[in-house]
Amino acid sequence: MAGAGEWSLLASLDEAQRSEVLATTRRRTFAKGEVLVHEGDPSDSLHLVASGRVAVRVSSPHGDNVTLNVLGPGDYFGELSLLDGNAPVRSATVVALEPAETRSLSATAFHELRRRHRGAEQLLLTLMARRVEDLSARLLEALYDGLDRRVYRRLRELARMYADGPGAVTIPLTQEHLSELVGGTRPSVNQVLQRLAGDGIVELGRGRIVVLDRARLDRKAG
Predict the structure, then answer these.
(1) Which residue, 18, 60, 90, 141, has fewest beta-carbon neighbours within 10 Å?
(2) Does the pLDDT of residue 5 top 50, yes or no?
(3) Do residues 105 and 76 lie in contact, with contact meaning Cβ atoms separated by under 8 Å?
(4) What does the DSSP 8-state code read for residue 42?
(5) What stretch of H or E contains 222?
(6) Which CATH number does 146-221 carry?
(7) What is the pLDDT of residue 20?
(8) Where in the chain is the domain with CATH 1.10.10.10?
(9) Full-model pTM
(10) Euclidean distance between the first and final Cα of the chain, in Å?
(11) Which helix (H) or strand (E) holds 21?
(12) Nearest 5 degrees, angle CA 58-CA 45-CA 130?
């Protein structure tokens, strides 16, 4: 479970301010499959993921649900709600992939904190900068990296997120979910996974992918 010291995005605040931020948050728990926020709903709070993993999903032009990202402890979503004079709506639906807990910081509480502490301004800048960096990296990857490399990198990220020790890591996601995350078709992603399985790097199962050799996967991801 993430705590004050594990949310690196709070590093711009001193210890007292970090404690104050967390004291103003609301602890929320969610069961597996429960929706944390709905796409299109008013966005009035930032969520810090304390435990569990959640999927960020959007509706495609054809009405399908597409998984854009998976977030784990230490991650966050909803930062646009903290901007002054902004009345955004949720740009995605966030669903718990397992029992999860977040710490919800309302825009009202944040604006009050911002009024009292200049460090809160830096926190908002940090939130926005990290999101821009992440989106820029994903765009460059989509434009210039082949499908194989994208699959390797998503698997590496997911393995780090789900790892609980030095051994094999079970990623409880389907190949369809992985295909959505890398922007490829399921048959094409399956071919990449079959090659990895043939090399003994992963093992494929129903609704899961087991990373057996993280070191070799890391080398392939670059």
Answers:
(1) 60
(2) no
(3) no
(4) B
(5) none
(6) 1.10.10.10
(7) 81
(8) 146-221
(9) 0.85
(10) 29
(11) helix 15-23
(12) 70
